[in-house]
């Protein structure tokens, strides 16, 4: 059912509260620290049964110089450097099997599917990247690991890894570094927004039903996981809400959106209990660059499903012809368009 704000209010909805005063300095120093370690991207060819795509097992160094794994898929026989799509996984997922996620490369892109460190055992796609950093006591999952300090928080590491993934794909011979886009759904959409706010010169962004947006609201209007991990933690650590909310403000997609310039496509389901619609609209409405939005009134966290994939492929297709991606500022609701 619709349990959030009505659509007319969502279209104008904005989060209250500013980014922390040292938000930009925090992320600048986090990335500078990571860049103190060699990026060292390695792409090792992998033999598969696929006859139309080539696959490489990619490793690069992310946060702390820790190795991060990814698959790179490219169309077999493609000439010249290709536009690239860097895809981040949903919560609990990793890069998956070598035979999964073949659509982007089949469409003509170089496609890097990146692990989320420590994840890949709770979703449908396996991971291969450990997180060697421990934390104080945390609720099972990833949302509360190191959550009382932004410097130790899990998503600091995951977001730095996401930016380093963009840098790594740009360093690969198969890729045109001027034509790199980031995409993802749910957690992957949140990481795509973070990369959009931190990585310069992206050609496009696709954030499907993005997670990690307007987090302070999300944890009070839904009891669905993964957001539910945070109030469960606070129900035990009753006096730590101030520290927790401060940490979450450093990873909120609303603040990254305000710093992003690449044309973007957002999607949202108005019956989504996992990423409440108001949290997605808050990020969309705060996005600094041109953006389009697809609204699915009768869908939950699946959003538009395959229709979202089709729209994403169409949105980034100009990159295949050397043309820029464009967003027109439209909001499309159940097949009807209006200026936004």
TrEMBL record:
<feature type="active site" description="Nucleophile">
    <location>
        <position position="186"/>
    </location>
</feature>
<feature type="active site" description="Charge relay system">
    <location>
        <position position="301"/>
    </location>
</feature>
<dbReference type="GO" id="GO:0005976">
    <property type="term" value="P:polysaccharide metabolic process"/>
</dbReference>
<dbReference type="InterPro" id="IPR039069">
    <property type="entry name" value="CE7"/>
</dbReference>
<feature type="binding site">
    <location>
        <position position="91"/>
    </location>
    <ligand>
        <name>substrate</name>
    </ligand>
</feature>
<dbReference type="InterPro" id="IPR008391">
    <property type="entry name" value="AXE1_dom"/>
</dbReference>
<dbReference type="GO" id="GO:0052689">
    <property type="term" value="F:carboxylic ester hydrolase activity"/>
</dbReference>
<feature type="domain" description="Acetyl xylan esterase">
    <location>
        <begin position="3"/>
        <end position="315"/>
    </location>
</feature>
<feature type="active site" description="Charge relay system">
    <location>
        <position position="272"/>
    </location>
</feature>
<dbReference type="InterPro" id="IPR029058">
    <property type="entry name" value="AB_hydrolase_fold"/>
</dbReference>
<protein>
    <submittedName>
        <fullName>Acetylxylan esterase</fullName>
    </submittedName>
</protein>
<dbReference type="Pfam" id="PF05448">
    <property type="entry name" value="AXE1"/>
</dbReference>
